[in-house]
Amino acid sequence: MDAIILQILNGLDKGSAYALIALGLTLIFGTLGVVNFAHGALFMIGAFCAVALQRLFGLSKTTIDESQVDFLGNPLKVQTPYLESWFGHDFGQALIDWSVPLAILLAIPVMLAVGYVMERGLIKHFYKRPHADQILVTFGLAIVLQEIVKYYFGANPIPTPSPAAFRGSLDFGVLVGFDANVIIYPYWRLVYFLFSGVIIAAVFAFLQFTTFGMVVRAGMADRETVGLLGIDIDRRFTLMFGIAAAVAGLAGVMYTPILSPTYSMGMDFLVLSFVVVVVGGMGSLPGAVMSGFLLGILQSFASMNEVKSLLPGIDQIIIYLVAIIILLTRPRGLMGRKGVMEE
Amino acid sequence: MLGLNRKDTILMLIVIALTLGAPVLLNPFPADSAMAQFNAGYPDLMQRFVIFGILAIGFNILFGLTGYLSFGHAAFLGVGSYAAVWMFKLLSMNVVPALVLSVVVAGLFSVLIGYVSLRRSGIYFSILTLAFAQMSYNMAYSVLTPITNGETGLQVYSNDPQYLLGNGPQVTHLFGLEMRAKAVVEMGGWTFDFSVGYYLAAIMMLAAFYLSLRIFRSPFGMMLRAVKSNQNRLNYTGINSRPYTLAAFVISGMYAGLAGGLLASMDPLAGAERMQWTASGEIVLMTILGGAGTLIGPVVGAVFIKYFENIFSKINEHVLHGWFGWLPDGVEDVVTWILARFVGEGWHLTLGLLFMLVVIFLPGGLVEGGQKLARLLRRSRPDGTTPSNTPAE
Measured between CB atoms, which of A125, A132, A278 is closest to B124? Predict the structure, then answer.
């Protein structure tokens, strides 16, 4: 029992990331009808927003401290971050410590802008082209974005720690009546899960309870009629693209303490996210979220030692296997609508 | 000739001439001149040209004719390589059984994957093939380690059985003719390498090209084109299109297997990274860049990518400074700084940008670009001949 709870918990954080990326992919697909192979790159750019902010906060000026000497007798050079000299030692250190959560504030405008430019500058011209062309051009864009990031930040993973307050682990087992140290769950993963829950809820609430969201939903159902009613649906869809990019970016920002960002992380997540979207059903937002969590948890179950000794290697292929079975038995995915991408 | 009409015969002859003459044609600069780094006429690179050419020709039979975009084609390349290396380990270093087995195994594997994947079309097909390829890749690293030798990669060891080896050579050979053997001809300042490995691969590519030419012109090819333009209508006329698409898928899988086997024949080594989805992406890049659905396009794309991959990654900031030394100092620094971002390590950036430009502006690839250019030149000729309106082929 405890092992099962542990695996469910372990699956949640990966599942949250899958769900967030798949949600953005589905938003883009449902509104604009575009298959975006560059979505993984957006996730990666979000992660590098956190890296950039960490670097920015870490900028230091070098002063020479006459009162201390190094072993050669020269005066010691001391690096003081600018933030400390501006805001005082304690607050400056706190800012640096909290650079990953604070990067959210940076990532939202950056990702909205990236999404806007991408849609207006490139994707707009591909609405009428076949899906294969959309896949190809966004695939090319993903390579370009990846290489630009690689140029600025190098090819190695960059460690981005979470704030010190979240570095420990929660003894979850004690809370529900198991022995101590049986079910241990890092705080940050809990934060990530809650964060993704908030984001998902916010996106759904936005679509469900605002006039803007209502129009967007109407546009998803029948774009032409909404256009005939005199609503400029294209502009709203452009904004939805920006929001989808921001969702992917935020997923990336908060994921950095779990996985040190590299330029190629987007591609790794992209392949899995597409599988998630297909399993959930193309064009279904709840389906995307649900299958994201489902596949995340399935994957962590498959990596249990008991399962692995029974079916060796199953942890590596479980997601793909599930996708193949779902596609063949329920072609529309778990919650897919009729007539989406069935030409 | 050989069932080809006049135009195709000329095309075939041109391809034969270019392929067989490549060791000379690709070495236009004397060996010790400053431009020698642009020479591509050394066996290692030329082998890659033709091998990836075979791969792209095969991919084009599937994507160019039927419109099914497979994102998992590298799986067949990898399987072919593994099959070939196993033949080297079990029998002898002769490449013939290796190539035969790699084609057969890749063919069987593609029957399996194609049978399942082709039940869906469009993006679902792309994702299914991607899923299968990633599955094979992950399994090659984990469960199948006894067969694939995991991360080390499969290679031939001296204690392998090699039942037919006898006193045969320890390197890959074709009935005694070693793959790495080459005749070096020196003419003035020029050096030309005629390598056995290259010519074997080149002849294979010519055979592959001839076959693809025949498929393009056959009723079978017509049927595949019908699938691309409107599969529903084809189904409504009472034709079951699936056997045709499956045949195209298997043929292109066997092409990929042959390419994998040839790669292993040139260098008896196989690793799982050949099956990764980025490798599949590269095949797609080659075909689209050259021109999907055209006969010669895929080969052009393969040669283009492999050539610039090799040449661009050799250029660095130092070389650029040498080239632009004649510019005023400030301008020179700016120019070299900008260009340096696109060469060397930045080659993938150039490739990505180029690929995007081709998809956006030239959906027919470089071949279409060439045709447009030719038409433009013809139109600007004063004698006023009307440009021909034959469709791109």
Answer: A278
Distance CA A50, CA B73 (A): 36
Cβ A327–B128 below 8 Å, yes or no?
Answer: yes
Task: Count other C-beta atoms under 10 Å from residue B393's C-beta.
Answer: 14
Q: Are the Cβ atoms of A144 and B349 closer than 8 angstroms?
A: yes
Q: Are the beta carbons of A131 and B122 separated by less than 8 Å?
A: yes
Q: Which two tokens stand for residue B333?
A: 């620094």
CB contact under 8 A, A341 and B69: no
Nearest residue on chain B to A274, judged by CA atoms? Answer: B127
Q: For residue B274, which amino acid is it?
A: R
Cα–Cα distance between B33 and B28 in angstroms, integer? 11
**Containing H/E element for B254?**
helix B242-266
Residue A329 near residue A281, CB atoms below 8 Å: no
Most A CBs within 10 A among B338, B354, B356, hence the mutation to make, goes to B356
| Whether CATH 2.30.29 fits A2-58+113-329 | no
Distance from CA of A8 to the nearest CA of B (A): 23
In whole numbers, what is the pLDDT of chain A averaged over residues? Answer: 84
pLDDT digit string (tens) for A52-76? Answer: 998 888 888 877 777 777 777 777 7
H or E segment to which residue A88 belongs? none
Placement of tokens 């604070």 in the chain: A102
ipTM reported for the complex, 2 dp: 0.81
Q: Which residues of B touch A144 (CB under 8 A)?
A: 349, 352-353, 356
Cα-based distances in Å from A28 to A108, A127, A284, B218: 17, 12, 11, 41
Return the domain boundaries, chain B. Answer: 6-276
For residue B327, give the DSSP letter.
Answer: S
Q: What residue of A is the nearest CA neighbor of B288?
A: A136
What residue type is A81 in one-letter code?
P
Q: Which of B200, B310, B215 is nearest to B261 (CA)?
A: B200
Collapse the DSSP code of B27 into the 3-class scheme (helix H, G, I; strand E, B; otherwise coil) and give the result.
Answer: coil
- pLDDT average, residue stretch B305-331: 78
Is A200:A19 a contact under the CB 8 Å cutoff? yes
Class of domain B6-276: mainly alpha
Nearest C-alpha in A relative to B348: A147
Longest dimension (CA), chain A: 80
Residue B80 · residue B257 · CB < 8 Å: yes
Q: Does residue A275 sit at the B interface (CB-CB below 8 Å)?
A: yes
